[in-house]
Amino acid sequence: MKKIIEVKNLTKEYKKVKAVNDLTFEVLEGEILGLLGPNGSGKSTTINCFLSLLNFQKGKIKIFGSDMSPDAYKIKKNIGVVFQDIAVFEELNVYDNIDYFCGLYIKDKQTRKEYIEDAIKLVGLEDFKKFYPKQLSGGLLRRLNIACGIAHKPKLIFLDEPTVAVDPQSRNNILDGIKKLREDGATIIYTTHYMEEVEILCDRVIILDKGNILARGTTDELKKLANIEEKVTIEISDLPKKYLEKIKEFKNVEDITYNNELLVITYKKGKNNLVELLDYLKEEHIKYNKIFSERPTLNDVFLELTGKELRDV
């Protein structure tokens, strides 16, 4: 497949701290690549280097087969960017906001009008064309922000947390719109902290931390990296600590947590883990409500690779 982005040995330092450390990877035409990582992992720095918003000390970036640079306008006109922070004009209504941003690239009025209508339809804002940003809900603002970034029909789109803090209806609308963009031929770089979105949308995933690539591949390939085989969740009220300590001693238990009346046990490789647990609960006359078992999720892999400690940056 055609390479839309080629990154070789990209390195960006801030006062001897490597925000991005010798990254090399490719983005293929027509795919959605998930770029994941905790706060401070280097995602934003990497994207800003792609867009030539930051200088970097080492490496090469090619987009559409050409070297990217601050004055590479032929490349930039085919790129759409939707940052996490809302970037629209309060004094313009929905239609005029989209018209302004689309007009930066599309000068022909008739073509621009068609593109604006396509963007409005894509994000479901048909009933809000004359509304001003202050009249829109958070979800509608997000959808307007996306429409402004993609109205000129770019071939490459960067989406930075486009569904953060939106209602479920807007979230579903946004996800459906992203799928439609890919169906129409766009290549997309997608960042999010919602792992279920990654599983729904992304063809491949790169997990970054501290400027390094920790893992890459499809979601199924990444799940195979997990050191756990099974996760069991049980609803139990007031489970004494002595029983938790006993369960921790089971042969294949990797980790155990008990919060808000939910007991979560992760197991390493092994068989009959659930049978052993149920037999023990029955033997100790411990009552429980719902119980279910699942395979490792992408979120499990992410936490295993990047750690569970809180990130404040």
* Series of secondary-structure elements, N-terminal to C-terminal: EEEHEEHEHHHEHEHEEHEHEEHEH
CATH topology of the largest domain: Rossmann fold
Shape: globular
Overall number of strands: 14
In terms of structural class, how would the helical and strand content be classed?
alpha/beta
CATH H-level superfamily of the largest domain: P-loop containing nucleotide triphosphate hydrolases
Oligomerization state of this entry? Answer: single chain
Helix content: 25-40%
The appropriate CATH architecture of the largest domain is: 3-Layer(aba) Sandwich
Strand order of the largest sheet: 6-7-8-3-9-10
Report mean pLDDT, rounded to a whole number: 93
Using the CA coordinates, give the radius of gyration: 23 Å
End-to-end C-alpha gap: 37 Å
Question: How many individual domains?
Answer: 2
Report the total helices.
11
Q: Would you identify the regions where 5 or more consecutive residues have pLDDT less than 50? A: none
Strand content: 25-35%
Largest sheet: 6 strands, mixed
CATH class categorisation of the largest domain: Alpha Beta
